Automatic annotation (TrEMBL):
Transmembrane segments: none annotated. One of its GO terms (cellular component) is BRCA1-A complex. Keywords: ANK repeat, Repeat. It comes from Necator americanus. PANTHER family: 26S PROTEASOME NON-ATPASE REGULATORY SUBUNIT 10 (PTHR24171:SF11), ANKYRIN REPEAT DOMAIN-CONTAINING PROTEIN 39-RELATED (PTHR24171). This is Ankyrin repeat protein.
Length: 297
């Protein structure tokens, strides 16, 4: 039998590499970085690259390396305002050329040098703010995938835009709220996420959480002083309407207790009360409404 000696195509290696990172297989992914030249900067057929793959799988070493190897940042000085500042447990492995700091991928991966912090990246289209064709950044991907430590790390870096919007005008907070990632939602809010950001359908993070009955996140969002509790989506539906429509009792009661309107109508002239499935919830919402009115007096 004749053995196929045709070279492996780069796109196939990128596909394999991306799958390793998505499955959190750090060690095999590290070996590919060392073995396959250019794989760290390569993109797949959807335009995603190492920061995106690593954010999905929570592969911190590879994510940090990809950011540190950003071509523009790698040639900057170690000025805190503009440069790339690297702190290593083994500083002898750092190669200084003038005021520049350089470290090889091999030293980072094979000799197990631990990166503690990377700050000061400026390039908006690579590394920290690297977007895929749909406008997803590593932060958005990590927030959606529930990668708490990746989100915490990215938010610690000065150039990350916590309110970046993808092509559907959604933010990282939309995905954290939708996927019921409470700790990530908290981190994003503390980092300044716009609690009222509306996507192209007019939906806010509160719409997402309320419609799916993510009660802890609903309470978290309602605790923000600038929350627009009766924000309407493109169909005129409020978060309370969606909670009632989906029979999310606890979320609906929490919204009503905070003053969400029971009578506001959508484009179909329906109120939240019109889509209730039980009279029991109707009574609870009326009681919650009375509580909200009493609190306002």
């Amino acid at each position: 039998m004749e053995i196929d000696k045709s070279p492996v195509k780069m796109e196939d290696m990128v596909r394999e590499y991306a799958e390793l990172l998505r499955k959190s297989n750090d060690e095999d992914a590290k070996r590919m970085v060392v073995r396959v030249e250019g794989i760290l900067e390569a993109t797949d057929d959807s335009g995603r690259s190492t920061p995106h793959f690593a954010a999905v799988g929570g592969c911190m070493p590879i994510l940090q390396l990809a950011i540190s190897q950003d071509k523009m940042a790698a040639n900057r000085t170690d000025d805190l305002s503009f440069g790339l500042v690297l702190f290593y447990i083994y500083p002898a492995k750092i190669n200084r050329v003038g005021n520049s700091i350089k470290v090889s991928a091999k030293d980072f991966l094979i000799q197990k040098i631990d990166l503690v912090a990377i700050v000061g990246l400026q390039d908006e289209k690579r590394g920290l703010r690297s977007e895929d064709p749909m406008g997803w950044t590593p932060l958005m991907i990590a927030a959606s995938a529930g990668r708490v430590e990746v989100v915490r790390y990215l938010l610690s870096l000065p150039q990350v835009d916590v309110n970046h919007r993808n092509n559907n005008l959604q933010t990282a907070l939309h995905y954290a709220a939708s996927r019921n990632h409470a700790e990530i939602t908290h981190l994003l809010l503390e980092a300044g996420s716009d609690v009222n950001a509306a996507d192209k359908f007019g939906a806010t993070p509160l719409h997402r959480a309320a419609s799916q009955g993510h009660d802890k996140i609903v309470h978290m969002l309602l605790g923000r002083p600038k929350i627009h509790i009766d924000a309407r989506n493109s169909e005129g539906n409020t978060p309370l309407f969606l909670a009632c429509e989906e029979d999310r009792e606890d979320a609906a009661i929490a919204l009503a207790r905070k003053g969400a309107s029971l009578t506001v109508k959508n484009k179909e002239e329906q109120t939240p009360l019109d889509v209730l499935k039980t009279n029991d919830l109707r009574m609870k919402l009326r009681k919650a409404e009375q509580h909200a009115q009493a609190m306002q007096q």
